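Methods — Computational structure assignment.
A single polypeptide chain was analysed. Its primary sequence is given first, followed by the predicted tertiary structure written as structure tokens.
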Amino acid sequence: VNGMAKGFAMTGWRLGYMGGPAWLVKACAKLQGQVTSGANAFGQKAASQALLADLGPTMKMKEAFAIRRELVINLFKNIPGIKCNDPKGAFYVFPDISEYFGKSDGHITINSSEDFCEAILENTHVALVPGIAFGNGNCFRLSYAASEENLIDAIGRIKKYLSSFM
């Protein structure tokens, strides 16, 4: 099972593919037919061209994301109270911030991932997504699909603000 979104920067096109044993693909096709509608011809043609094209640019993009992933993980490792995972897919990290729960900067007390993300947004202008939206209220999600410069700046602002909590 794979899709065109991340590998070929075709986010939002809702195109994917699957390979496997015939019995499994047939069963999945029954389900898929009930939960999705037909992909448009333009998108199908674009996906076909992407799959047939030189993968050199895709591999360069993959390398750039690997570098950004390592950068983000290392930056978060230098912030007390944040435990950052090492993601193996997509382009998000999902750091645990539960050590901040019950702590205050003097104005706001962090009791949830929503509180944490709201405080970060209001005080650093960095947008994070509360982990509760993904089933873990101890974490937040950050996309590293941004330039290295923007990531360094954003995480630096987060680190500076969080120093008022510890």
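Note: Residues 8 and 54 are 11 Å apart (CA to CA).
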